[in-house]
Amino acid sequence: MTPFVFLAVLAAAAMHATWNALVKVRSDRFASITLTSLGMTLSAAPVLPFVDVPTANVWPWIVASVIIHIGYRLFLIRAYDHGDLAQTYPLARGTAPLITAIGGVFLLSEVPSGLAVVGILLLSLGTLLMSLRGGGHLATLNRAAVGYALTTSLCIAGYTLVDGSGVRLAATAASYAAWLFVCDGLCAIAIGVFYRGRKLLAATAAEWGSGIVAGFLSAAAYAIAMWAMTRAPIASVASLRETSILFAMLISVLALGEKMTGWRGAAALSIVAGVIALRMG
Q1: What is the value of pTM for the model shown?
Q2: What is the rounded CA–CA span in Å between residue 5 and residue 7?
Q3: Alpha-carbon span 131 to 109, nearest angstrom
Q4: Which residues contact 238 (CB under 8 A, 6 or more apart)?
Q5: Residue-level pLDDT at 139
Q6: pLDDT of 53-63, one tens digit each?
Q7: Which is it for the CA torsion 83, 87, 93, 99, positive or negative?
């Protein structure tokens, strides 16, 4: 992984944590994440005339990704409804790199180097530690939040492997990302209108600005990640992207008033060590 790709993925991680925090602080998270999807569509739509239309062998990957993303959003909303950002976000993100790495070995024949494996393990350990101890004692964890967060992690690993494979077949990463975001956003909006109807408009009326910003950040963050997957192993990119939990920790403490603990500091050190190992690998 070159220094430029490395820094780009770190920037994407910061964007990812920010849009998740914007969704978390809203009372109606279904409406908020639907509005975020609209923001992604509006960000990508102007790009369509300037990129190639995906070929027939790319569309199955886009369709599969859209389906998995629908599940991802629904389970993420449920996780946020049952748990704190400081616990649900790291748990959802922390197990995904391990699943992605294993899937990459068996499905894509991408075997990480020794240092990369160490980095992936340290990053995953740090994110899990942040979740299990970062907000208090294990006994305070809501089982429903844990279940939804872990299911979310399966969806994350699934769409990461799908999109990593699809974007490598596309003419350009921009082409794949733009068409994926438009298709995914339209599906999310259709689902939102189906379930809420006019109530969805009322729920999002006061949040248009933050929703569009969240959508832009989400689109930019994932577009960078997919571009990076064309230049580095998918598992390494996916793991480095989870440094977003460091940014989520800062947001939760500084903006949301959640408590900073020694466990969070230890988890942060583990994550930083993982980042260093990935960079050296």
Answers
A1: 0.83
A2: 6
A3: 31
A4: 96, 97, 100, 101, 157, 160, 164, 225
A5: 46
A6: 999 999 999 99
A7: negative
